[in-house]
Amino acid sequence: MTARAVGESVPRLDIEAKVQGRRRFPQDMSMPGMLHAVVVWAGYPHAGIRRIDPSTALVVPGVVAVLTHEDVPVNEYGINIYDQPVLASDKVRWLGDRVAVVVAESLRAAERARDLVKVDYEELPVVDNPLDGMKPDAPLVHEDRRSNLLKHIYVRRGNVEEGFAAADVIVEGSYHTPFVEHAYLQPEAGLAYIDDEGRVTVICAAQWPHDDLRQIAHALALPVERVREIVPAVGGAFGGREDISVQILVALAAWRLRRPVKMVWSREESIRGHGKRHPFYMRHRWGATKDGRLTAVEIEAVLDAGAYASTSVPVLENAVSFLAGPYAVPHARIDGYAVYTNNAVTMAMRGFGATQPPVGYELQMDRLAEALDIDPVEIRMRNLLEPGSIAVTGNRMPAVTSARETLRAAALAAGWREEPQGWRRSGPPSSIPPRKSRPGACSSSI
Questions:
Q1: Handedness of CA 352, 245, 98, 270 (dihedral sign)
Q2: Helix count and strand count (H, E) for the chain
Q3: pLDDT beyond 60 at 63
Q4: CATH class entry, domain 132-180+276-425
Q5: Given a cut of 50, is residue 438 above it in pLDDT?
Q6: How confident is the model at residue 22 (pLDDT cuts 50, 70, 90)?
Q7: Is the per-residue pLDDT at 445 higher than 50?
Q8: Which side of the chain, N or C, has fewer Cβ within a 10 Å radius?
Q9: What is the DSSP string of 290-342?
């Protein structure tokens, strides 16, 4: 008999070991002769580094080394662009920059010595949001670039001026979504050592270990086949483990010292040191006829890339494709910008550029519905993409396009009814118990 999985309850292969506590995560790993490493974090979100003095830290009993940028063969890495230093040299660009790594025989010695590493900073003006970062006189986050603009992607369809001229109503709105923390249960942790074949080997939680190898090998100036990564149990990721965190740091320490080196970040360090979901700043201008048909949209979205590129460009590419929503729009002018700031690096998080745009386009549809006195479900039904429709990006929708069926099912479950004259709200749904509200309670889309 052929085994079936769809529609069946199938036990996960590792579930027994996890519930019994036998499954080992990176922070559970240890080796004989293992050293402990901690990070010296940036003291400011934007500052020049005049001098790093590890001398006092080096005399702490048990301290083996304090690694700085001078110990890194090729001091750069990045999942898409090599724009991030392994250890900061002349400048820090956000509070998550790593300035040095203290390695000691015990964690207590490493933590004690970390506080004794002296860094002489020169504070620089901070770019704390991408709108200010786009201004011509904004301080440069990366001094080798002409501006803080990382990428501009645009969509042009039809003639927007003609579309707005044909509109009976035009609504405008500005929307902002915040940073979002991945908050996975297992903080970043890794153990690196030199294996029996002389390879730099890293045990860590990761989503793209093959790409980690590329970045580690590049930073250590090694052939990629001389680097190995082992990924045991992963305590959550959600996109947050696509980028390098501790991998290069422990690899560097093990490679330099020829001993196993372990690093485990605290929850505070995890929140400080890894990227977040992108904040979006969106400006919308939409036009429609009296019967609720869209005539034109004009949209500008500015993404806060933070201090380094990470996956901001792919996220922007996705976002620009989704900014007008699942609606048929004959005329569109859409611009998306990713901008460097001195904020936290921003990166992949579930949805990858698709979760922020609905805050703008759905609120625009609600505003049009209110302005035209049309039911919000009905106005959406009149504009949804369907099989054969042409999206703003120029692609023809396939036969499996099912936005209309999806909205219909959701509307019926939420208490709407479909009448000959269109959709209308008929009261609370009978099949879903209404939520009990409490004073001061609120909800959010993001």
A1: positive
A2: 12, 17
A3: yes
A4: alpha beta
A5: no
A6: confident
A7: no
A8: N
A9: TTS-EEEEEEEEEEEEETS-TTHHHHHHHHHHHTT-SB--SSEEEEEEEEE-S
Distance CA 289, CA 291 (A): 5
> Left if phi > 0, otherwise alpha if psi is -120 to 50, otherwise beta: which for 6?
beta
Quote the pTM value.
0.90
Domain boundaries, the chain: 132-180+276-425
Degrees (nearest 5) of the Cα angle 362, 367, 373?
120
pLDDT, tens digit, 9 for 90 and up, residues 86-106: 999 999 999 999 999 999 999
Q: How far does the chain reach from its first CA to its final CA, in angstroms? A: 45
H or E segment and range at residue 380: helix 376-381
CA distance 337 to 345: 15
Residue listed under structure tokens 């290069």? 248
- Cβ contact 85:75 at 8 Å: yes
List pLDDT tens digits, range 297-306. 999 999 999 9
Identify which of 148, 131, 130 has the alpha carbon closest to the alpha carbon of residue 139: 148
- Position 349 pLDDT exceeds 70: yes
Q: What's the pLDDT score for residue 139?
A: 98
